[in-house]
Design a protein that fits this description.
0% strand, Transposase
Length: 99
């Protein structure tokens, strides 16, 4: 008697998002979505709960990227000023050495 071991299916994040968004629209029941996507109702519920509990990350991530770009601009500006000061000091060092 041979037993076939069924391997666990893996789903991409885009697929999960698609299913969750359909579930949030509530145009179809979870049972209908489960049949259409060949999933178990509990799996869709789990993904939906995970999506909702992590949804605020989307907005904090955008703010963090914006803050990072502002910080980078400030740093590049400071680097430019320091390079100019460094070049000025190198050029004028010879004047002080001759004294």
């Amino acid at each position: 008697m041979g037993t076939l071991k069924r391997s666990r299916r893996k789903f991409s994040s885009s697929f999960k998002s698609k299913v969750v968004i359909e579930a949030l629209k509530e145009r179809e029941s979870l049972q209908e979505l489960a049949l259409r996507y060949e999933l178990h109702v509990n799996q869709i519920s789990k993904w939906k709960q995970e999506f909702l509990s992590n949804s605020s990350i989307v907005f904090t991530q955008k703010n963090r990227e914006k803050d990072d770009s502002i910080n980078k601009d400030e740093l590049y500006s400071k680097i430019g000023r320091l390079e100019m000061e460094n070049e000025f000091l190198k050029k004028n060092l010879n004047l002080f050495e001759d004294l």
